[in-house]
Amino acid sequence: MIKTKYCSIIWFLCLFMTTFLYCEKNGNAVPNGVSDISYDVVVYGGTSGGVVAAVKVARMGKSVVLIEPGKHLGGLSSGGLGATDIGNKAAIGGISREFYQRIRKHYSKDSAWRQEKRSEFQGRGHTEGEDAAWTFEPHVAEKVFNDMILEAKVKVVYRERLDLKKGVKKNGTGITEIVMESGRKFRGKMFIDATYEGDLMAKAGVSYTFGREANSKYNETLSGVQVKHSTHHQFIKPVDGYIIPGDRSSGLLPGINSSIEKDGTGDKRIQAYCFRLCATDVPENRVPWPKPRNYSPMRYELLLRNFEAGDHRIPWNPVMMPNRKTDSNNNFAFSTDNIGMNYDYPDGDYETRRLIIQEHEDYQKGLMWTLANHQRVPQKIREYFQRWGLSKDEFVDNDNWPHQLYVREARRMVSDYVMTQHNCQGRVVAEDPIGLAAYTMDSHNIQRYVDENGYVRNEGDVQVGGFPPYPISYRSIVPKESECTNLFVPMCPSSSHMAFGSIRMEPVFMVFAQSSATAAMQAIEEGVAVQKIDYLKLSQRLLADKQVLSWLTR
After folding, report:
1. For residue 256, which of 339, 315, 182 has the smallest C-alpha distance?
2. The pTM is what?
3. 178 strand-pairing partners
4. Closest CA to 170 of 155, 157, 188, 153
């Protein structure tokens, strides 16, 4: 009897462990109620920043888990954004620069060039004298991130999403554990929210905002409604916005507002999202543009009228990547940006976001099909787009479509230090830098409206630069002490809409993530809240790890 009892217990334990390991390997949740061990750091979000944060913790000898709601690592950097946005490359150091150096090392091998010769490609960082490459194929970026994770022996858990109703457990101001939709729990001493949306931050009770502040909020000139500055990616011909041209009573075409607010007014609108398509003109590697099942010509009536009005500019921006591929971005009046269709995304639940993502996919697929096939598109433009198509060897598990929507902006934390336009333009300088930002203040268009003549205009695109790299405050990546004492937010830092438009670049997110991980280790060692660490000690370690903290000393 006793033997049988023990055999039963052993059998049950073996079955449990087999189930646990199978679920772990396949990225699925372990049975409900099962908790992982406690980690020094829990990183939520397998974006580029999430990978860097987890790798840094592991390299510093501490325990870490990286939780990714999807099944790919790298976020936008492996999701189609291969034309890296960075104003001055010398501002990027640490593991962020290491990533781009690894990219260059990959392409230094002749075997990496399948669709063209290495000597034929002149993309950023691929010429003599460079130490890092800033243009790359999506699958190469994902491989580099995966290699870094494997080398550091970081535990990665895929396909686990934060429970948006009861997903954060706190003891006072400290997070003790986070809970997934599956019921799986992750306990930790420190937490890093490395998502583009800031879900962990929001559910932890940390103050945040989204949309545009009124200019008066921080005495800025560029954050609110920007009719005067919206001169880029604009209509250059008069195009009627009514369903029946000239008939206001017929209603407006899809995605157009009937009026516009006064310049400088704040709102909850978000700059447009898109997918960064990886296209190719190599016939044997090209997939024809797919036509969505719910295709509606009316969705593109404005595009067709714009062509008929005489605007024959090719409406996309295909930056060339290695092997005759592109990172394709928005360009001109009507393009890949799905203007006005993402306002509910930042605070939306998973179903709301799924519908928005699907709407963007349907819109962009329909756009590309229209450009290549619709008879009202000028013949030369049709023939141009017929030479292009999706890359057959990219995103192979998603019908060659990017797995990551370009969430240009969602939630932004509001902490004790808010980065603003004044920081970007050097009128205010952060005294506790954890890295530099270096890009132009850049917002894509946010809405469409008709003017007093019934003609369509875009609003919200602002591009103001001409300033050197500038420091980002440590206080902008940690919450107010009264709200949370063991959380870092490197991807949704405390900043105004316009400052975030400069900060929001993938290399910079990786810089912030490394600094977050380093500060987390220091907070654990010092036994203090993240707001109370010794900044001088942090800065010394960051500099030793090749982070760039000051432009004046360059």
Report:
1. 339
2. 0.93
3. 168, 186
4. 188
CB atoms within 10 A of CB 532: 12
Please enumerate, as own/partner, the contacts of 1-6 that have beta carbons within 8 Å and a separation of 24 or more.
none
Strands 185-193 and 35-44: parallel
At 36 the pLDDT is: 62
Say how far residue 303 (Cα) sits from the centre of its chain: 27
Find all residues with CB under 8 Å of 230, minimum gap 6, and list them: 445, 457, 458, 459, 460, 461, 462
330 near 272, Cβ under 8 Å? yes
User: Distance between CA atoms of 414 and 217, rounded to whole angstroms?
Assistant: 13
Choose among 381, 140, 382, 137: nearest CA to 277.
137
Find all residues with CB under 8 Å of 541, minimum gap 6, and list them: 518, 522
167: left (phi over 0), alpha (psi -120 to 50) or beta: alpha
Q: Which residue type does 2 have?
A: I
* Cα 441 to chain centroid, rounded: 16
Which residues lie below 8 Å from residue 174, measured CB to CB, with a gap of 6+? 484, 485, 486
Query: 406 is written with which tokens?
Result: 């370009």
Looking at the chain, how many residues does it have?
Answer: 554
Q: Which amino acid is at 132?
A: A
Contacts of 384-387 with C-beta under 8 Å, sequence gap 24+, read 384/314, 385/289, 387/281
- Would you state the pLDDT for residue 300? 98
Single-letter amino acid, residue 341? M
**Contact indicator for 411, 209 with CB cutoff of 8 Å:** yes
Annotation: CATH topology of 36-210+468-544: FAD/NAD(P)-binding domain (3.50.50)
Burial of residue 222 (CB within 10 Å: 0-12, 13-18, 19+) is buried
Supply the pLDDT for residue 45: 98
Parallel, antiparallel, or unpaired: how do β-strands 286-287 and 279-280 relate?
A: unpaired
Give the separation between CA 15 and CA 21, rounded to whole angstroms. 10
Q: Which tens digits make up the pLDDT trace of 176-186?
A: 999 999 999 99
**CA gap 339, 360 in Å, rounded:** 10
Q: Distance between CA atoms of 478 and 339, rounded to whole angstroms?
A: 31
Residue 139, H or E segment: helix 138-152
Supply the pLDDT for residue 123.
Answer: 85
Q: Which residues pair with 212 in a beta bridge?
A: 267
| pLDDT beneath 70, residues of the chain | 1-36, 553-554
How far is CA 66 from its chain centroid? 17
Query: How does pLDDT run across 439-453, given as a tens digit for each residue?
Result: 999 999 999 999 999
Measured in degrees and rounded to the nearest 5, phi and psi for residue 94 equal: 60, -150
Which among 540, 501, 538 is positioned nearest to 516, based on CA atoms?
538
User: Tokens 């008929």 sit at which residue?
Assistant: 308
Question: Tens digit of pLDDT for each residue in 257-290?
Answer: 999 999 999 999 999 999 999 999 999 999 999 9
- In the block, residue with structure tokens 């369903």: 243
